[in-house]
Amino acid sequence: MHHRNSNKVTLCYILSFKLDLYENGMEEGKKQEKEEKDKEEAEKKKKKRRTRRRRRRRKRRRRRRRGSRRRKSRTSSSKSSSGKKINYAMLSFSATTKLQYLKLSISASWAYVLQHVTLSQY
Questions:
Q1: Does this model's pTM top 0.85?
Q2: In a domain? residue 90
Q3: Does the residue 83 lie in any domain?
Q4: Any domain includes 70
Q5: Which of 6, 22, 33, 81 is buried most deeply by CB count within 10 Å?
Q6: Are 28 and 98 in contact, with CB atoms under 8 Å apart?
Q7: Helix, strand or coil, per DSSP, at residue 92
């Protein structure tokens, strides 16, 4: 093997390895996203059930007494603010976006390899 092309061959090996990594990563990322979605759906369903129950309870309470409205509104406002959580994962790039960037870099380097190396030498 010529010394001149040996580093290009190693580049080919590295790129194919990177491509495998990328494909595995994509599968993993998709799996994780699906799991997260399923979890969110389950939580939404739970919340819906809870709110329905709450509404029924509220209606019953309202029928019983039509006073002290001011106190009730204050407690509900504090509850709604504490329930909100910042999803920090959404602030950074998602795994799939990072992987797409990786794929771009891989395909670009493959293009370089194919332009500068004639594979018939090996």
A1: no
A2: no
A3: no
A4: no
A5: 22
A6: no
A7: coil
Domain that holds residue 55: 3-65+95-121
Query: Which of 65, 43, 62 minimizes the C-alpha distance to 54?
Result: 62
| CA pseudo-torsion sign 28, 29, 32, 38 | negative
21 Cβ partners below 8 Å, 6+ apart? 102
Does the pLDDT value for residue 2 go beyond 70?
no
Written as six digits, the tokens of 63 are: 């029928």
Indicate the number of domains in the chain.
1
Residue 114 has pLDDT above 60, yes or no: yes
pLDDT digits (tens, 9 = 90+) for 78-101: 455 555 665 555 556 667 777 777
Q: What is the Cα–Cα distance from 72 to 76, expressed in whole angstroms?
A: 7
Can you tell me the distance from the alpha carbon of 9 to that of 122, in angstroms, rounded to the nearest whole number? 9
87 part of a folded domain: no
